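Supplementary Note 2. Why include the ligand at all?

Several targets in our set were suspected to adopt different conformations when bound, so apo predictions alone were not considered sufficient. For every target with a known small-molecule partner we therefore ran a joint prediction. The input for uridine 5'-triphosphate is given below.
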Amino acid sequence: MNFNEAKAKLEALGQSHLLRWYDELGDMEQEALLAQIDALDPSLLEVFAKYGADGEAQRGKLEPLGALTIGEIEENRERFETAGLEAIRQGKIGAVLLAGGMGTRLGFDKPKGMYNIGKTHPLYIFECLIRNLMEVVDKAGTFVPLFIMTSEKNDEDTREFFEEQKYFGYNPEYVHFFVQDMAPAVDPDGKILLEEKGRIATSPNGNGGWFSSMAKAGLLGFLQREGIEWLNIFAVDNVLQRIADPCFVGATLLSGSESGAKVVAKADPQERVGVLCLEDGAPSIVEYYEMTEEMITRREPDGRLSYNFGVILNYLFRTDRLTELLGSSLQTHVVNKKVPFIDETGSLVKPTEPNAYKFETLVLDMVHQQRSCLSYEVERDKEFAPIKNPDGVDSVVSAQGLLEANGVVL
Ligand code: UTP
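The joint prediction is reproduced in token form.
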């Protein structure tokens, strides 16, 4: 795209300010900016224009979905684990670590996985995850292929860190990095922000694009060649989670479901978690703010909350279904976040409060694309210690407490 084409595109979109400093830029910067403008997806600006006016998309008919409970899982543990371990040994299970996020709430300027949560010795978030996965590797007697999604903002740091730490004892031949896509950020008036005079402020485009990013990275052929039939997707920040958990894998496989989701019983009806339910008969996740008071307090005859099971971002998806769904679009969510930007005077502003809007697709929306999902209950205190904030709820401090309660020496 040349300058005139870029100018015309931006004028049509009401974004001409992006060329404000064009003349000050060197040749390479100019070229890079024009490439960014060329890649700009106008539909995101339309999404933003509708945001606020219509809110999020309308939901279909919602109904409760129960879960395979902890008690039922215990009764069948041996059977489930045997089936899961067999699938792992056959190489049918891969794990996908979603580590492309910016972790803005934590406020750590390196990839979140590099955060040290140790007290008396270094213990990095990535290290906790690898240790958890190693337990399965030891049991199965084989390494599990591990795919790590980064973004262009943290890819180099993440790879270097794994190298430096010798993959925390994991076999590097089983680790595959891939990079997710980015999307521009806009101010409250819908104006795209610049992070440098010659660079549009972009952020990772959410965790929903992981499979298409894997495809873009050329990994689909690899999945096929290796016979990887299922992928266990998990977030970087839950330091207690079980990855490629043989019992979960076995239960999902034996259930005949097309997908599986680990869930925890809500701590109280008002807890702010996304709840696994049915929407128009297909599995779906309803956010706490989308639920009516009637739904929140509704109970089953046994006294349990009807909408009781919150998701913890640990899912099993079939690779053949994901491949089929490639190209189908997921809802774009608009989220309010802190995004550093260049103001009209050209000075860099580092906001302390959310100042901008980002565009994200979410992995939880992929659940609704599945025809069935095994809802698999796990014990919150044993498997759910997310690190979102420095302290308070879902924080370094709360996760440290939970790790210690589970015997991890910090
Ligand atoms: P979060 O929404 O908690 O992560 O994503 P975040 O965006 O990094 O955090 P804040 O809101 O700015 O503090 C849950 C998981 O999805 C990954 C995160 O790395 C985390 O594992 N994620 C999120 C991505 O991989 N890419 C994204 O674009 C966003």
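The radius of gyration is 22 Å. The chain has two domains: 1-40, 41-405. Comparable summaries for the other entries are listed in the accompanying table.
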